[in-house]
Amino acid sequence: MHTRHLWSLALAAVAAAAARAPSSGAGAAGTITGKVTFTGTPPRMRPIDMAKEPSCATQHQTPVMTETVVTGPENAVGNVVVYISAGDAAAGTPTEPARYDQKGCQYIPHVAVIQVSQPLDIYNDDQTSHNIHPLALVNPEWNKSQPPGAPPIHASYAKPEFIAVKCNVHPWMHGYFAVLTTSHHAVTGSDGGFTLPGLAPGKYTVTAWHEKFGTQSQEVTVAATGAVTANFVFKAQPY
Amino acid sequence: MRPQTGWLSLLSACGAVLLLGGTTPAAAQETHVANLTGHAPAGRPLYERYCAGCHGDDGDAQGENAQWIDPKPRDFTAATFKCRSTPSGSLPTDQDLYNSVERGFVTTNMPPWVALTPQNRVDLVSYIKTFSSRWVGAPAPHPITVPAEPALTLESIRRGRATFQRMECWKCHGPAGHGDGPSAATLTDSKENPIRPYNFASGSRFMCGVTNQDLYRIFMTGLDGSPMPSFADDLKPNEAWDLVHFLRTLQPLDTQEARIWRAWVRDHGSELKPIGPGGQ
After folding, report:
1. Do A143 and B186 touch (CB under 8 A)?
2. Domains of chain B
3. Of A56, A202, B78, B267, which has the fewest CB atoms closer than 10 Å, so is most exposed?
4. Are B186 and A171 inside 8 Å of each other by CB?
5. How confident is the model at residue B139 (pLDDT cuts 50, 70, 90)?
6. For the whole model, what pTM was predicted?
7. How high is the pLDDT of residue B30?
8. Contact A145/B233, CB-based, under 8 Å?
9. In this complex, do B230 and A169 lie within 8 Å of one another by their Cβ atoms?
């Protein structure tokens, strides 16, 4: 809880810095690529018992695992939001809605990245009611029921924040909304890789956020063409 | 004398403009309930005397009694409130906060502050609003519309029972409304503190009032900060009123709803499918 608040403050500071920074113009061709890995021992993910919700349990051949720390081969970390936190131009608001699904009593994607004021459509694809409860601290907190077959819930957020999302009916459901000011962002897959394309030459701060491991930032200088590498290593603890 | 009074009135006019400027936090936190106007400076000593013990000097729910209290006191710095007349995610109206101070919250440690005068309460509401910047410059919150209650009929109660099943109210509140549904044991509030769903058998009062209109508002606005969501997107006004009529039959009261329902169940109870998994 406390740490989430700090992220939000950090984001707000970064947003203010970004507003003054040089812009990445049209035709920009620079790219930042990298990989997110861990050292140490990450917490073990556990199988989720969905027996209390048979309509979801029957959708999964093998038990769904918790997703607090998703790892891949060679110590890769998934579900890390990597984004330009300073040096980027103020981005326009995308009008295309992002999509967030409740399916098989899971949130898909686990982390939805949206920009400030971008529409977010939340779907219930299950045969059970969910209540979607984003635990915003900087933005207003709301909590809405969504029965099976209900139309999507339209949401948007005015301020940058990493917002934990839960369903009170199905307490194993956990996800995040990452509300950013930049249009340059990526979420790592289980291979830990990311690519931030379309950047104008210049100096940027790249930040990697993970729900359990926290944030890391580094300065990166992008040349006129070609890719620059920025890798992130999080120190994992089993608890 | 004349020029002097002219200067004086000019000065006092400037003062009034400064006071009523609308952009200062103090002015933003002026409160209006009926014909009363509340002022934060007047509310402060009352808050420190009556409220800070639980809610904390800084309104952050860290008062010295807070550790002994369950559910925890409201954290005014978050400006998230359960009992509102406004949609989920909105600030409450001044009247909502005033009502909360006056009524207290059944099943919590918050008593009804009947000993305070109406002016005291409205001043307290003003002071409570100084703890969060969400109030500064915020547009006036709009209450939801509560249409007139339709006639109470057996059919309305039966439709309400079907809604209780379909909206899966029973998953938390239990098939008989005893607060013992399959998800009840794992519920937490927005600060991850365990919290119980309302037990309809526990008495006559709800968290946010006693009337049918209060009950309608509870599930159409949701109790923000708690697991109770808003059903405003899912229920039409008539369906919501049907649900109100059914919920009344779950209470241990001799209400009109209960009389109609119990008379019908006596003869037709065997026709009812039980509420719960795979119910009607």
Report:
1. no
2. 28-135 (1.10.760), 154-271 (1.10.760)
3. B267
4. yes
5. confident
6. 0.87
7. 83
8. yes
9. no
User: What's the mean per-residue pLDDT of chain B?
Assistant: 90
Q: Residue A50 belongs to what domain range? A: 2-236
Across the interface, whether the CB atoms of B188 and A168 are under 8 A apart is answered yes
Torsion (CA) A186, A190, A193, A194 in degrees, nearest 10: -10
In chain B, what percentage of residues exceed pLDDT 70? 89
Supply the DSSP symbol for A114.
E
The Cα of B264 is separated from the nearest Cα of chain A by a number of Å equal to 29
Contacts of A50 in chain B (CB under 8 A): none
pLDDT per residue as tens digits for the range B169-218: 999 999 999 999 999 999 999 999 999 999 999 988 999 999 999 999 99
Of B89, B171, B182, the CB nearest to A141: B89
Q: Does A171 touch chain B (CB under 8 A)?
A: yes
3-state secondary structure of B3: helix
Check if the beta carbon of residue A130 is closer than 8 Å to that of residue A115: no
Under an 8 A CB cutoff, do B227 and A168 touch? yes
Q: What is the CA radius of gyration of chain B?
A: 23
Q: Is B193 on the interface with A (CB under 8 A)?
A: no
Predicted confidence (pLDDT) per residue in B11-68, tens digit: 444 444 444 433 444 455 689 999 999 999 999 999 999 999 999 999 999 999 999 9
Q: For A160-174, how does the pLDDT look when each residue is reduced to its tens digit (9 = 90+)?
A: 999 999 999 999 999
| Residue A235 at interface with chain B, using a CB cutoff of 8 Å | no
Say if residues B27 and B21 touch (Cβ distance below 8 Å).
yes
Element spanning A185, H or E: strand A185-187
A153 contacts in chain B (CB < 8 Å): 233
pLDDT for residue B5:
45
Signed CA dihedral, B193, B198, B201, B207: sign only: positive
DSSP B180-204: --TTGGG-B-TTS-B-PPP-GGG-S
A32: domain CATH number is: 2.60.40.420
**Cis omega before residue B71 (within 30°)?**
yes
State residue A19's pLDDT score: 40
A76: part of which helix (H) or strand (E)? strand A76-77
C-beta separation of A21 from A88 below 8 A? yes
For the segment A91-132, what is each residue's pLDDT rounded down to a tens digit?
789 999 999 999 999 999 999 999 999 999 999 999 999 999
Q: Residues near A27 by Cβ (< 8 Å), separated by ≥ 6?
A: none
Total structural domains within chain A: 1
